[in-house]
Amino acid sequence: MGKVTKEQVESTLQSKLNPSHLEVIDTSGGCGASFEIEIVSEQFEGKRLLERHRLVNGALVEEMKEIHALSIKKAATPDQWRQQQESEKSASNAA
Amino acid sequence: MATINLSSLQASSPSLRFLSSYSPQNTLHASFYSPSSSSLSFPSVSLKLPNTLRFRPRSLIIGAAAKALSETELVPVPLTAEEFSTQLPSDSGVYAVYDKNDELQFIGISRNIAASVYSHLKSVPDQCSSVKVGVVDQPDKTALTEAWKSWMEEHIKATGKVPPGNESGNATWIRQPPKKKADLRLTPGRHVQLTVPLEELIDRLVKENKVVAFIKGSRSAPMCGFSQRVVGILENQGVDYESVDVLDEEYNSGLRETLKKYSNWPTFPQIFVNGELVGGCDILMSMHEKGELASLFKK
Question: For a Cys-Cys bond, which of A47, B75, B209, B240 suits A51, CB 3.0-4.6 Å?
Fold first, then answer.
């Protein structure tokens, strides 16, 4: 496998975790391939943050061999995501 | 002695020393008296500023940062840690410590005034009777140094003396560089045949130590941004932790691969508390932001 692309990461996560929201940002720099991920999936329901990260890491096990850094910014359930969006919205409305 | 020009004194005369500068590249002669627990939170300082302050032109700030020494109220030094946090600001600024005869002993700058004065109280309680505090609004190094200089100059002008604690050779008020713990080594060296599998050494290590961080590089010089952030958070929490450099091929040879399997976690840094993997940098940051770390470390 050559250099991992953002599209590869996206399609792998899409197929394995069936996310309702997914954002992959390519932050590759001097050190090698590097990504930031925001992901919302029903599969996170009832799982601790550690286990959610494990799911993401597990889904990307092949890609991880070539990825220098993976930063999981958010791993939320659809419910949490909705709440967060709403609170952000009301915060920005208030401002 | 008539008037003393402080800047020339600093530059030419060895008789006045501006705090201690223990980092060799520190050309400013200024170093902050801040306990390690607060020194790592610098980047957040500017974020706490109200919007209106952020874009104020610099020229307005310097010089107007703190009130004159003589106009600043002298307040008694609190006696307990709790009182400190309520009675003294945890902001950046300049402070002057007075003994029980109201003699000025030391003028310092800090990124956390309350914490600095508290450390002084612990190290020289008999000389810390009261304190004057000047918070500096936009606390970059220049502004802080200016504030410090203006107080020093004012005091020297008024009394013809340098505060005893700021005199050259007086180490009473100056924090010694914190002794960083050494990183732990898993093996005696790669030439030594292990009698116990590496996995078992890892297992023992994380179970025998409350908090263990496996990082890239040493704790004093982490080699990757994520490890650096983790060290920063742990120091900021003031937690007593052990660190293991996973890049140390001499003493931790084979650790990276074995640890990944042991913890079923593909990346570094990895943080263990009470023998259990907490996660990597993202998880630690997220817990830090939610304020969940203190209770985790108390367990």
Answer: A47
